[in-house]
Write a structure and sequence with these properties.
The structure holds two protein chains of two kinds. By secondary structure, chain A is α+β, with helices and mostly antiparallel strands. In chain A, 20% of the residues lie in helices and 28% in strands. In chain A, helix 4 runs antiparallel to helix 6. The radius of gyration of chain A is 24 Å and the shape is elongated. The two termini of chain A are 35 Å apart. By secondary structure, chain B is mainly alpha-helical. Classes of the chains: A alpha+beta, B mainly alpha.
Chain lengths: 287, 281
Amino acid sequence: MIGDLILSFPVLKHGGGDFLDDISYVVEATQAQDKRNLYITHALKGNSFIAQLIKDGKAKFCVSLFYKDNAERQAFTCIDDDVCIDDETNEIIAEQEIKIDFRYAPEITPSIVIFENTEIRVDNNSGLNDFWDAEIFAIPAYARIAYYQKLKFTEGNLLQLLSVSLDENLPDGSAKTTVFETAGEGEQPIKLTCAKDVFDELKKGVVDKPDDAKTAMRASIITQMLCYVYSYMANLKDKETGINSGLLLHMQQVKGDWQDDNFNPSLAATQMLPYAIKALNEGANND
Amino acid sequence: MTKYKRINEGIWADFGKNLLKNKGSDKQIQFLQVCNNGKDDFLNYLQENLLNNQDAIIGGKDIFFNHKFTEAEFRFPPMDTQQEIWQVFAKIGREYAGYCGFWAYIIIQMIKHNCITPDYLASELNGTYKTGVYMLDNAINSNDSKTIDDCVRRILRSMCNPAPRGKRIVFNDFYLGKVYWRWHWAHKMFDKIGLSFEEILKILDEKGYAEFSSKMHSQQSYISQKNTLGGLLLFLKENPLSAKNMGKVIDTITYLSVWKAIEIQSPELNKQEIKRIFDDL
């Protein structure tokens, strides 16, 4: 959507082209599960009019948090004390610590926002390409002058999506997979219910590259499960509405287009490296 | 953070989807019949088709709303009932109030403890004869698949099942949820923009509310941030909008928010921004 806007001032964004190659804006975010805190680091590199605006106090780093399932948006602006300017490396770093209000991590939209109407005369320190040479442009207050990509925490890693449980009544060697594609944010959409012997084997851990019969057998349990999951997802009538975002991300990483009629779930499952399961049900205990 | 007992969101959604697979099916008629038969049959049906799944209930603290409703009161809670609803559920927090499975569990408990009867869920009562009992009888005996399906959908919405319209029903179609969220937003905003709590509740009771609440729960919900919401409420105080115009204004606010950080702009400035948007419609 950003690409479709016609703005009369340059905006710093990935692949944008208005700024010189050594100018960049990158954001990292980590989540401390035990403290329900988000730690966000903004890094603006290079000599640009944006960097100057921040140094002059006319622009600030901001994040918007979106908790999808609860229709909640929150905005946080970086305070001056959290901004560190390094003139030697031409870098401005800002850090934010934000309390997470819900059990699941939000979608994060970082940006740099200007706080007053400003006029920019392009010169050698503006950090802009030839197109903007000798230009004078006005930027209205509250305009976003830099974007970074939206950050989401669920990477589609199987560990985050899967819960494994034991059912003593199942016959030896059996396991049952259930997919809840509409599971809410923070819930695990894939459940693997195992007989005791299968459960005990999985507890020993599944490695990325099995190198003997035992580890290969454990890996094959996961492959069978993935085959079921991919088949289930491929057979959904509605492959877009209300699907758990983590599960959707995982499906986008699968080899082959799972939304295509010719998708082969079995082949896709065998081509997926088994994920290491560090601890069973680790995701369910994050509160 | 306290955990409250609720039904697993995915399992609850699947329950509704299964009922909506085929319009006018025997399955749908059976569902209407057990609803019409009363509490014991209805609860047995839920036990056999939903709650017998070992993963159906996610454990936590029980919360019980001990208020005996009339049918009309359940559909359109008056102010004093709304206050009771808020007093009970304010403490659960926004996260749980957004779970369809949480509210479904509450409704089932209310039926169990005779606070409502299952037929209330089918009610279209609005100063007319369309009680739940009437609607159930009419649907069961209609031989019309659309009438049957409509009745099933109404029951599911009244139980906060997302299958008919998605999770956004918790903000509007589901009666208790509608009360909670209106009161939540009024409480959130009343000391921030110079409007009283009652004024905000009134604004959120106007005809544009359904569109407003639907947009709040979409990916375009830029209005939920308090400065933007404040501006919108200040504007709506003087200019109540139709559902159509409400949707257009909110969509335009969303486009604007792509390049302009309106969530940081003051509510007063946002009010002026929204007025410009409305004037340009």
